[in-house]
Amino acid sequence: MEALILLKVLVTTIPVGFVAALMGIGGGSLIIPILVTFFQIDIKEAIAVSIVMVIATSISGSSRYLKQGITNVRLGIFLELTTAIGAAVGAVITTLAPSYFLYLLLSILLYYLSFIQIRTSRLEFEKVRYEKFTLLEEDSIARVLHLSDRYYDRAEGKYIDYNVCNSFKGLISSFMAGICSGMLGIGGGVLKVPIMNTLMNIPMKVAIATSKFMMGITASTGALIYLMTGYVNLELVSSTVLGVAIGALIGASIMNRVQANKLKILFGILLLYFAYLMLARGISILVGWRLPGA
Amino acid sequence: MEIRKALYLALTTGLIIAITLYSSGLILRLTLIEWRVYKTLFFIGTIVLISTPIAMLILSLVLFIKNKEIYNAAVIIILLLLITIGVIIGIVLRTKGL
Question: What is the pTM of this model?
Answer without folding.
Answer: 0.87
